[in-house]
From TrEMBL:
It is a multi-pass membrane protein. One of its GO terms (cellular component) is mitochondrial inner membrane. Its main location: mitochondrion. Pfam families: Mito_carr (PF00153). The gene is SLC25A15. One of its GO terms (molecular function) is L-arginine transmembrane transporter activity. This is Mitochondrial ornithine transporter 1. InterPro entries: MCP_dom_sf (IPR023395), MCP_transmembrane (IPR018108), Mitochondrial_Carrier (IPR050567). It catalyses: L-ornithine(out) + H(+)(in) = L-ornithine(in) + H(+)(out); L-citrulline(in) + L-ornithine(out) + H(+)(in) = L-citrulline(out) + L-ornithine(in) + H(+)(out); L-ornithine(in) + L-arginine(out) = L-ornithine(out) + L-arginine(in); L-lysine(out) + H(+)(in) = L-lysine(in) + H(+)(out). GO terms for biological process: mitochondrial L-ornithine transmembrane transport. PROSITE patterns: PROKAR_LIPOPROTEIN (PS51257), SOLCAR (PS50920). It is found in: Mitochondrion inner membrane. It comes from the Eukaryota.
Length: 301
């Protein structure tokens, strides 16, 4: 059965939302450690030190600070990402002169994912800003950069609106785009190449859950290795703008390298690499299986 483009888009959007939810629930504690270590590298000697200090300062709930906006961010990002991914695959087919139902190469899928990520960045930036600020609220307060305040999603939103208006939610948009567009080329490229490796002649649609999760993990590793320094700068811009410091990407980059050295751009890389396999594996597993389920229901109908 040939599906309607609107129905196909709705299926991709819903499957992307399922994937985003699975990704956050699996990887949130590691994401919290990553953001803390990126923004305050001088406070933590490593991942273990960051974990122990977070637990002693704010308890187990400290690992899940920013989960609500993280869920909203990932559901919004992955819904838009995978919906636009389907559209961008059609654009790539048109540019390449292929039939609408033709299978794309791994490189062509990577290009489609890269294009789709630009649209996803527009919904991701505001929610990720709130998430990063909540995750580092304790450090910002204890370092005296901001006054003590209510530690809630709504208080952060009100603070942004009061200080900078609606456009304040887009602090770090340029660095988010700089991370997303090349990053998702490697993300989808790594995922599709890995699926091709596991399929070895069979259809990639026949792969079981373990190869899918491993392929998702490979995609996540490829993304973060390619763009991690950009993500580090993005986190700095989004968190430190809370104290009124407004700095662009290049200025922040130069300040970090000059004052802290090039290694500061890789602070928090370890929890990110650990998180990549379970979080991105869960993302693609939830996406592929929920999409397959909905497509089967549609064909049966």
């Amino acid at each position: 059965m040939k599906s309607n483009p609107a129905i196909q888009a709705a299926i991709d959007l819903t499957a992307g939302a399922a994937g985003g939810t699975a990704c956050v629930l699996t990887g949130q504690p590691f994401d919290t450690m990553k953001v803390k270590m990126q923004t305050f590298p001088d406070l933590y000697r490593g991942l273990t030190d960051c974990c122990l200090k977070t637990y002693s300062q704010v308890g187990f709930r400290g690992f899940y600070k920013g989960t609500s906006p993280a869920l909203i961010a990932n559901i919004a990002e992955n819904s838009v990402l995978f919906m636009c991914y389907g559209f961008c695959q059609q654009v790539v087919r048109k540019v390449a002169g292929l039939d609408k139902q033709a299978k794309l190469s791994d490189l062509q899928n990577a290009a489609a994912g890269s294009f789709a990520s630009a649209f996803a960045a527009l919904v991701l930036c505001p929610t990720e800003l709130v998430k990063c600020r909540l995750q580092t609220m304790y450090e910002m307060e204890t370092s005296g950069k901001i006054a003590k305040s209510q530690n809630t999603v709504w208080s952060v939103i009100k603070s942004i609106l009061r200080k900078d208006g609606p456009l304040g939610f887009y602090h770090g948009l340029s660095s988010t785009l700089l991370r997303e567009v090349p990053g998702y080329f490697f993300f989808f490229g790594g995922y599709e190449l890995s699926r091709s490796f596991f399929a070895s002649g069979r259809s990639k649609d026949e792969l079981g859950p373990v190869p899918l999760m491993l392929s998702g993990g490979v995609g996540g590793i490829c993304l973060w290795l390619a763009v991690y320094p950009v993500d580090c700068i993005k986190s700095r811009i989004q968190v430190l703008s809370m104290s009124g410091k407004q700095a662009g990407f290049m200025r922040t980059f130069i300040n970090v390298v000059k004052n802290e050295g090039i290694t500061a751009l890789y602070s928090g890389l370890k929890p990110t690499m650990i998180r990549a396999f379970p979080a991105n594996g869960a993302l693609f597993l939830a996406y592929e299986y929920s999409r397959k389920l909905m497509m089967n229901q549609l064909e049966a109908y």
